[in-house]
């Protein structure tokens, strides 16, 4: 049986659930980012209960674990990007493999997202998260392995491909299940926990971009620069283990409720907006550092520029939802941040190099705001939590799956032309399309 702490948390959770759909959510005096409130397991019967903990200290320990999990969800993308030229040259990677390595993890975010609620119904969300962290740790350890040592094959490419794929699958599961746990376990601290969780994800990308190249410089080996990111994942795995194993397993079934989002024009407009922002977001993680280095910026400085860009993404992601929710509709803000992001990308490739910090800052602030605005539409365009969960699943599956074509096209254009200039034209087009669909999805209408 659940103790008194969990019983009270369950009551607070149900109270919080009643006011989350259709716009802003307030807990105390804090405005919660609506994107952190979508519970992927909301359609399940019996309803998923809060995590079993033994008291306030155990609940605080759980909160630390969830934030630390978030702190491992983006370093996979930015760490490889930071040393991509060294990996390519020293490992002798063919051109096609570079494109695959930057595209596959994003594609898997969309492919594995629908699997997360299915696994949670069978094993429980906490145990699925534990398995995901184990898979992430294994993938990070596998990435730099020389296949000739363990499999009799030549080169690093097989391990890089398998390790990167494992990381993408693990992150997909965490992306879907973590927001629901934050919502169920901390209904009385949603503002604090939502802010810490989303900030940790952005910080993960910034740390990967800023520290990977200095580790390479200090050790002289790109393998060690990538291996170092398995350490924080392994630490979180150990910390979260006692929480996950004490959870009981309850067989639940899915009873679908809410609007069929796949037949809604509004849902498709929001999803296409998500696709376009994902194309720019993950292209930034994968290619901004190589773009800067091709323009003559040294590796350490390029890493700092990307890290600074991501820090500004944090600011955008924190303030944009509150601003968007205050408007009667979101047409203006969606259009502005889409144009900011596209312009920042184009100028980072084609603009004067002496103003690169300005262009990267414009890109970071725009991209953080753009991502937050797209996710905020999940709540602002739905009337109930069930429809919001279905729209979130549609946006993640289609958004990440199709959005990964952005990194693919950048890689193919660079491989075909030997320059990132065509990618500048691509982002000009993507930014304009994002502005168009941001305007359309920003109209004050509801799914269904």
TrEMBL record:
The keyword Transmembrane helix applies. Residues 17-30 have a biased composition (Low complexity). The chain crosses the membrane at residues 59-84, 96-116, 128-145, 157-178, 190-213, 225-245, 266-288, 300-320, 332-350, 356-380, 392-413, 419-439. Keywords: Membrane, Transmembrane, Transmembrane helix. It comes from the Bacteria. Residues 1-32 are annotated as: Disordered. PANTHER family: 2-NITROIMIDAZOLE TRANSPORTER, PTHR23523. This is CP family cyanate transporter-like MFS transporter. It comes from Pseudarthrobacter enclensis. The lineage of its organism: Bacteria, Bacillati, Actinomycetota, Actinomycetes, Micrococcales.
């Amino acid at each position: 049986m659940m103790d008194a702490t969990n019983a009270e948390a369950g009551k607070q959770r149900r109270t919080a659930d009643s006011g989350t759909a259709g716009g802003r959510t307030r807990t105390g005096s804090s405005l919660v980012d609506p994107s952190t409130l979508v519970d992927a397991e909301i359609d399940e019967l019996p309803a998923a209960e809060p995590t079993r903990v033994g008291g306030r200290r155990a609940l605080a320990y759980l909160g630390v674990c969830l934030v630390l999990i978030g702190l491992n969800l983006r370093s996979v993308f930015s760490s490889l990007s930071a040393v991509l030229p060294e990996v390519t040259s020293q490992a002798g990677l063919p051109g096609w493999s570079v494109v695959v390595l930057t595209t596959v993890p994003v594609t898997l975010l969309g492919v594995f997202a629908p699997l997360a609620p299915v696994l949670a119904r069978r094993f429980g969300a906490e145990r699925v998260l534990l398995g995901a962290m184990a898979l992430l740790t294994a993938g990070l350890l596998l990435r730099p392995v020389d296949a000739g040592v363990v499999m009799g094959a030549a080169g690093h490419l097989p391990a890089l491909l398998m390790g990167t794929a494992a990381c993408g699958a693990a992150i997909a599961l965490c992306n879907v299940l973590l927001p629901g746990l934050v919502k169920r376990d901390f209904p009385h601290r949603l503002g604090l926990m939502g802010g810490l969780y989303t900030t940790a994800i952005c910080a993960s990308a910034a740390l990967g971009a800023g520290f990977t190249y200095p580790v390479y410089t200090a050790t002289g080996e790109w393998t060690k620069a990538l291996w170092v990111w398995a350490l924080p994942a392994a630490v979180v795995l150990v910390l979260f283990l006692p929480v996950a194993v004490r959870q009981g397993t309850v067989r639940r079934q899915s009873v679908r409720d809410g609007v069929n989002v796949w037949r809604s024009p509004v849902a498709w407009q929001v999803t296409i907006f998500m696709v376009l922002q994902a194309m720019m977001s993950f292209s930034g993680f994968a290619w901004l550092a190589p773009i800067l280095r091709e323009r003559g910026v040294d590796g350490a400085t390029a890493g700092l520029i990307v890290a600074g860009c991501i820090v500004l993404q944090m600011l955008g992601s924190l303030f944009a939802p509150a601003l968007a929710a205050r408007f009667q509709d979101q047409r203006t803000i969606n259009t502005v941040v889409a144009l900011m992001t596209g312009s920042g990308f184009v100028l980072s490739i084609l603009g004067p190099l002496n103003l690169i910090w300005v262009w990267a800052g414009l890109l970071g602030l725009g991209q953080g705001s753009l991502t937050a605005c797209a996710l905020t539409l999940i709540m602002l365009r739905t009337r109930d939590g069930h429809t919001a969960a279905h729209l979130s699943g549609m946006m993640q599956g289609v958004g990440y799956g199709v959005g990964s074509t952005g990194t693919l096209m950048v890689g193919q254009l660079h491989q075909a032309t030997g320059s990132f200039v065509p990618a500048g034209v691509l982002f000009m087009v993507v930014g304009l399309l994002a502005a168009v669909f941001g305007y359309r999805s920003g109209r004050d209408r509801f799914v269904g």
